[in-house]
Amino acid sequence: MAKFVLAGKADCPYYAKAELLADYLQKNLPNFRIHKITQHPDNWEKWLQEVCEKNGWNHKSSPIIWRELLDRGGKGLLLGGFNSFLEHAQQYYGITSDMMTEEMLVIANENLQTHIEIEAEEKELKSLINPMHIWINRASAHVCYHLIPLLTNGEIFGLETEVSLHLFDRSCFKELLEGVVMETQDLASPVLRSVSLHTNLDEAFLEADVIILLDDILQDTIPTIEDCIRQVTNQCETYGSLIEKNAKSSAKVIVMGKTFTNLKALMLMAHAPSINPHNIVTIAMLLESEAKAMLGRKMKMHPAGIKNLIVWGNVSGSSYIDLSKTELYRYDSAIWGPPTFFRPLLDVLFDREWMRTEFVVALGSLSSRESHCLGIAPAHVIAAVLKYWYQDSPPGELVSLGVICEGQFGLPEGIVYSMPVKFQNGTWEVLTELVISEKIQEYLQILAYDLTREKQVALGEVEELYPQRRGTQGARSNLMEEDQLQANEPGSSASKEGDALKKEGVVEETDDSVKELHESKSFEDDDDEEEEYNEETTEENVEELTDDNV
C-alpha cells in the first residue's frame, strides 16, 4: 500500500492542485492513501523547519510530500515538492493535473478560510476543557514524588476539576523527570489531564493556576549570610518576573524551603505585582505538625487530637511555638466528654521543665533527620494547605501560615510573618481577635525585627544582618553560627533548617524568659555579648549549602 503525506500552507495554490490530484488517485486506486496537513501561513516556516530537522530533510517551499513506509507512521521517505509529486503520479499511474492557475487561486483561498474555521472550532472545543495548571518548581526533589499522588487523587480540588501537572527543574534532571512523568501517567488518575516536564526557564509557570516553589539550589559555598540573602533575592527576582509574565493573575503561590522562606515570599510579591499578595504564602504547618507529634508522645495521645498550636515568626528561621491556645481532644484522662469536648494543654501538661528543656531540644534535633528526609511530611502539609485553600479549613481550628503582615497584632507592615489564620471562601483571614499576652507580644516584636533586617539586606538598605554580633572577627563564615549564643539559653532552641539556618522555639512563659530573649537578640551593641560570641565563634570554615532534598 502506498501512503503519502501531503503538507502545505493553507493558502498555497500548488498545495491546492496537489491536493486535488491526490484525492483523485485515492478515489480511483485501491492501494493509494493520502494524509493531508495544512498549516496557517504564519506557522508554516516554523513547522516545516521542525519536520525537516526531525527527519533530516532539506526542503524550503510549499507543499512538501513524503511517503511513509508503514500505514500508521514510521520513517518517512521524502518525495519532494509539487513538481516531484506531479512527476511521480505521471510516471507511476499515468495521471496528471490540468488545473488552471485561476482555479488554483480560488481553491487556495477557500482552503485558507476553511483552515481558519477549523482552528476556531478546535480552539472553542479546547476551551471547554479547562484543567487546573499546577507548576512544581524543583520537581526532582523527593517531596514532589510524594506530592503528585496527593494532587491527582481528586481530594484537593474535587473530582470535577481536571489538573495538568508541569514539572520544572534544571536540564541536568531531565532524565529523572522523564521517569517521574511516566510514573505519574501510570497512576491512571481520572482527574489527571496531562503531565509534562519543563527545563526552559522562559516557559516556566505558563498559564499557572497553582505554583509550588520547593527549595532552590544555592551555590556550593556562600561566604556570609548576607551573600546568601542576596542570592536568594536574585533567584526570587527571576522567578517573580516569570510569574508576572506567564502565570495567571489569580495564581496561588506556595513557597517551601529551608532558607529564608519568608523573605522569598516577600521578594516574589515585589517582583510579581499583578499577583495578589494574599495569594503568596509560606507554610508553617510542617513545624506545627512536628511539635504536635512530640506533644502527642509526651501526653501519650494521638497527635491529631492536638489543635490550635500556633507558630509565629519566620518559618525557616527564628520562630515562637505558642501553646497558650492549644487544645487537647480525646485525651485519656479522668474527665471525658462529647467529641467537641477539649482540655487546654497548659491545664494538663504540668511538666514545665520538660517544655523548657527537652521539648525545645527535641525541636532542634529534628534537623538531624532532614538530610534523610524523603519528603512525606512536607508533601502532606502542602496538600493540606491547598485543600484548606480550596475547601476551607476545619471550623474552629487555627492554621499557622506565613502571610503578608498588614499591621496585625501590632507587627510592622511589609514583612511576611507566620501567624494564625483560617481559610474560608477561597481565601485566608488572620484571626486578629485572638488575645495575646504582653510577653508573647515582646517575643513577636523581636522576631519581626529579624525579618525586617532580612528585608533591609535584600533591598540593599543595610549591608549586614546583625552588625552588633560581628565583634572583632568580622563577618561570620558559618551560617550555622548565626544564633549560637541563644542555643543554650532557657526558653529558646536552635533548630537547623536543612544545612543553612536555624529556628528558635520558645515554649514557656516565665518572668525571666523575655529578659533572656532580649539579651540574646539585643538591638544594641553589647560588650559582654560580643565577648561571649567571640569565644564561641572560633570556627572559620565556610558552610556548604548542598543540594539536599526537601
From TrEMBL:
Residues 483-550 are annotated as: Disordered. SUPFAM superfamilies: LDH C-terminal domain-like (SSF56327), NAD(P)-binding Rossmann-fold domains (SSF51735). Residues 291-456 form the Lactate/malate dehydrogenase C-terminal domain. It comes from the Eukaryota. Keywords: NAD, Oxidoreductase, Tricarboxylic acid cycle. Residues 485-495 have a biased composition (Polar residues). One of its GO terms (molecular function) is oxidoreductase activity, acting on the CH-OH group of donors, NAD or NADP as acceptor. The keyword Aminoacyl-tRNA synthetase does not apply. GO terms for biological process: malate metabolic process; tricarboxylic acid cycle. Residues 524-550 have a biased composition (Acidic residues). The keyword Oxidoreductase applies. Residues 496-523 have a biased composition (Basic and acidic residues). PANTHER family: MALATE DEHYDROGENASE. Belongs to the LDH/MDH superfamily. MDH type 2 family. This is Putative malate dehydrogenase 1B. It comes from Salvator merianae.
